[in-house]
């Protein structure tokens, strides 16, 4: 396969398992449910007289490692950096 098709890399947090993906070929992995992280507690705005809820921090998708069962963390591959350094790997 052409390595330029891959947009994501998955790293296991416990073992050396590593996998490249284009984001569409992950049907064989089990996805671990995650929730968005709360960045700030809801606070009361005295001028508007209502509660202001800050937007939550989005998390990347996490999967279960097929080798050891720990979680795979997914990272987006930054292709702009590769073009700047002219690296082909
Ligand atoms: Zn693993």
Number of domains: 1
Number of helices: 1
Percentage of residues in strands? 25-35%
Report the span from N to C terminus. 14 Å
What hetero molecules are bound to the protein chains? Answer: zinc ion
Q: How do the strands of the widest beta sheet line up side by side?
A: 2-1-7-6-3
Shape: elongated
Spans of at least 5 consecutive residues with low confidence: none
Strand element count: 7
Instruction: Determine the structural class based on helices, strands and strand pairing.
Output: mainly beta
Order of helices and strands: EEEEEEEH
**How much helicity do the residues have?**
under 10%
The biggest sheet amounts to: 5 strands, antiparallel
**Cα gyration radius (Å):** 19 Å
- Average pLDDT reading: 85
Summarize the structure.
The chain is mainly beta. It has one helix at 79-85; strands spanning 8-12, 18-21, 31-32, 43-45, 50-52, 62-64, 71-76. The chain has one domain (3-79).
Overview of the molecule:
- It contains one helix and seven strands, in the order βββββββα.
- It has one domain (3-79).
- Strands 2-1-7-6-3 form a five-stranded antiparallel sheet, with no helix packed on it. It has a two-stranded antiparallel ribbon with strand order 4-5.
- A hairpin with a 4-residue loop joins strand 4 (43-45) and strand 5.
- The chain is mainly beta and 89 residues long.
- The chain has one helix spanning 79-85, and strands at 8-12, 18-21, 31-32, 43-45, 50-52, 62-64, 71-76.
- The longest helix has 7 residues, at 79-85.
């Amino acid at each position: 396969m052409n390595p330029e098709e891959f947009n994501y890399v998955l790293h296991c947090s416990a073992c050396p398992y590593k996998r490249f993906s284009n984001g569409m070929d992950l049907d064989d992995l089990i996805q671990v449910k995650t929730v968005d992280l709360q960045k700030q507690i809801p606070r009361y705005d005295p001028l508007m007289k209502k509660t202001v809820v800050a937007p939550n921090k989005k998390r990347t998708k996490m999967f279960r490692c097929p080798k050891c069962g720990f979680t795979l963390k997914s990272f987006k591959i930054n292709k702009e950096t590769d073009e700047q350094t002219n690296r082909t790997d």
